[in-house]
Amino acid sequence: MTAILNSMELKLKDFFDNLNLKRFVPSVSKMIANRLNARELQQFTRKELYTVAQDLDIAGRSQMSKDELIKAIKQNK
């Protein structure tokens, strides 16, 4: 029984690895930039905003403060 479960677990892992979910991340980041206002973006951590900025390929993001990241994300519509 354990061998069967291990086999199923490996097959599921392979399935999800092959989905390549990373391709959906930029569209989620674009949606965040387009739909959320600056006040809503303030609820994100700097690290989360940095990830969005990274997905949107915003130049200079590593040097930006949280407020600067929010401004850059909103300008990237």
Quick tags:
single chain; 77 residues; 5 helices; 68% helix
Question: Would you give an account of this structure?
Answer:
The protein is 68% helix and 0% strand. It is mainly α and 77 residues long. It has one domain (20-75). The termini are far apart.
Summarize the structure.
This protein is mainly alpha-helical and 77 residues long.
Shape: elongated
| Cα end-to-end separation | 52 Å
Give the helix proportion (percent range): 55-70%
| Classification by helices and strands | mainly alpha
- Give the amount of beta strand, in percent: under 5%
Number of strands: 0
Number of H/I helices: 5
Summarize the biggest pleated sheet: none
Instruction: Return the average pLDDT rounded to an integer.
Output: 82
| Unreliably modeled segments | none
Order of helices and strands: HHHHH
- How many domains, in number, for the residues? 1
Provide the gyration radius in Å. Answer: 18 Å
Task: Show the helix and strand layout.
Elements: H1 2-18, H2 25-35, H3 38-41, H4 46-55, H5 66-75
Helix pairs in contact: 4-5
